[in-house]
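Board notes (copied after class):
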Amino acid sequence: MAGGAKKAKSKDPDPSDFLWPTMDMKKTNQQKPYDAKKSVWVPCPKTGGYREGILESGDMDDPASKCVVSVGHEKFSYESALVGKVNPPKFEMCEDMVNLTFLNDASVFWNLKIRYQAKMIHTYSGLFVVVINP
């Protein structure tokens, strides 16, 4: 071989452990509380990321509207442009982010975060692979 490199005699490891969630993971994610009209993402001032909340009042489709969102036991007021919809639980740990129903920053970051925490560091986004380096 060129450059003195020798071919490895062992097979490459199976990457499926780092790409697809197990059935147990999917069942656990399906039990997450979710309301299609009220589950939303809002900015988190402490971390600079996003957190999930429940929309109490306001219209997300009207850019001039103020939305009241409850996160835990607290209520916060946000401009509707800062509030994003949460994907249904069947899309938790989605291996291809093109399949997400609501493709917003918070949904993409959340998907990458929970996949990383489950040691699934490879995620597709259409034709491209997103790899989170551990």
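Comment from the instructor: The helical segments are 23-30, 105-117. The CA atoms of residues 11 and 17 lie 16 Å apart.
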